[in-house]
Amino acid sequence: MPGAMKMVGPVLVKGAVAEAVSAAIDRLNQGVEVSDRGAYLRISAPGRCVLTSEAVAAVLGRAFHLPVDLEAVMCSFSGELSLSHDRAIWYAKDATG
Asked: What is the chain's mean pLDDT, rounded?
């Protein structure tokens, strides 16, 4: 489909941290879709999906350390992934920015 943006983002093992990550992603990005697959959540955004440790910590009510706390619940992802100590960005290979 021409012009359609590739959906990118994490697949998370369900639990309190996954719910907080999902809520943070929803607050930081537009067009977010969350699919509840029973044991896991598939979170997708068109073209680019940004997550910050600060946004997750605000939802959790405690510190959230990237990348270690994300790696503990992320079993897979779609797109390319860039990680730092305060931010995770999933992006489509052909997306810019």
From this structure: 94
